[in-house]
Design a protein that fits this description.
Elements lengths: L3 E7 L3 E8 L4 E8 L6 H15 L7 E6 L24 H9 L3 E5 H12 L6 E7 L3 E7 L2 E2 L31 H4 L1 H12 L7 H10 L18 H7 L6 H9 L3 H25 L3 E5 L1 H5 L3 H9 L5 H5 L2 E4 L6 H11 L5 H12 L1
Parallel strand pairs: 1-4, 4-5, 6-9, 9-10
Antiparallel strand pairs: 1-2, 2-3, 6-7, 7-8
Helix pairs in contact: 1-2, 3-13, 5-7, 5-8, 5-9, 6-9, 8-9, 9-11
The structure holds zinc ion (ZN).
Zinc ion binds next to loops.
């Protein structure tokens, strides 16, 4: 019998939907802007249109949903992260189950991306820690095929562990979070601050990176870097706005400032990941998101840095890998997670293999 597994990715910018059939073929895929400023009812209306469009494939068997922020086990929104007015307290899970006339589960989008990466390994990882480096740093932890979500699905906010006491201020309001050094926007801001010589608060992260690169482009430990010949530094001094993509393009071209920013971001990530290794004991750490797409060297770098930052058993038996799924991970992960509501583990892994190749 034909089965149609739907996935939704609901963010502050857009609502995306996908349907895969029992053979893993994508049968429908669509997106619409989120009418975030018009309030929760308008957003639910837009979700209803997407669900209606997905239902053209056939009667939906299940719906998995990923969304930013906190969500309780009944699918009620308990966080404000999607930036939608009146969104707090919305019974999203019940509303979508009613629209689709199918079982529905709503999870934090970092957890859904982690689930997608677990599914992409077809059961090859027992306990997988995922970090997604984009506008912020999201994360998730999958053990034996289950999302370990914690209270309101907010577990593994690994971007908000402190890697530098009294360090740069994070979007969450706390000083020194990993996200303040290694999210996409933070990497751009770091390049601008360092290029202009405004790096007084980089502290031990910079020292570690400087020391680690004593024979490399940064010169001797303790020296104030001037980044001779750096086009990126010249742009920063000229007042240009820089983003992570530009930093990593410059890195690939051998730019000294980009190398310094990369070293500091890698150190921040290595400290955060090391905390994850000590707390969760994963067998696989997956790094994904837009930043990693432009910086494919980072997983191996972080694996090497972790060796001095957590006891050896924690990193020795752990693989560090780039994400296998690109920007469709959230959607495909949502569809597969939804399918897990109605399929056995073996059926789910077979569907993941068929869907993800
Ligand atoms: Zn933070």
């Amino acid at each position: 019998m034909a089965a149609f597994y739907a996935g939704l990715d609901i963010g502050g910018q857009s609502i995306k939907g996908i349907v895969v059939d029992e053979e893993g073929r994508v049968r429908e895929e669509l997106a619409t802007p989120t009418p975030a400023s018009q309030g929760a009812q308008a957003v639910l209306g837009a979700i209803g249109e997407v669900v209606g469009g997905l239902s053209r494939a056939g009667r939906l068997s299940s719906v998995g949903v990923g969304t930013p922020g906190g969500v309780d086990e009944r699918g009620v929104i308990v966080g404000m992260a999607a930036n939608i007015s009146g969104w707090y307290g919305t019974g999203l899970g019940e509303a979508i189950a009613s629209m689709a006339q199918a079982p529905c589960s709503v999870r934090n989008d970092g957890n859904i991306a982690a689930y997608a990466e677990w599914a992409a390994r077809k059961g090859g990882s027992k306990c997988l820690l995922f970090l997604g480096l984009g506008t912020g740093i999201g994360g998730g932890y999958i053990e034996d095929g289950r999302i370990m979500g914690g209270r309101d699905d907010r577990a593994v906010e690994i971007g908000h562990v402190i890697v530098e006491p009294h360090g740069r201020t994070c979007a969450c309001g706390v000083d020194g979070c990993a996200e303040a050094y290694a999210s996409g926007p933070s990497i751009g801001r770091l390049a601008m601050a360092m290029g202009r010589g405004e790096d007084a608060r980089l502290g031990s992260l910079a020292s570690a990176a400087w020391t680690g690169a004593a024979s490399g482009p940064l010169g001797a430990s303790g020296a104030t870097p001037t980044f001779p010949g750096s086009r990126l530094a010249a742009r920063a001094r000229a007042g240009d706005l820089l983003n992570a993509r530009e930093v990593y393009e410059a890195y690939a071209a051998g730019d000294l400032l980009a190398a310094a920013v990369d070293a500091i971001a890698a150190e921040a990530l290595a400290r955060a990941v090391s905390i994850g290794l000590a707390v969760l004991a994963p067998d696989t750490v997956v790094l994904g998101g837009g930043v990693i797409a432009g910086a494919p060297h980072l997983p191996a770098r972080i694996a090497a840095l972790a060796q001095g930052r957590v006891y050896s058993d924690a990193w020795k038996h752990c693989a560090f890998e780039p994400a296998r799924l690109s920007n469709r991970a959230g959607l495909l992960g949502a569809a597969l997670y939804g399918a897990s509501l109605v399929l056995s583990r073996a059926e789910l892994i077979a569907l993941a293999a068929a869907t993800l190749g």
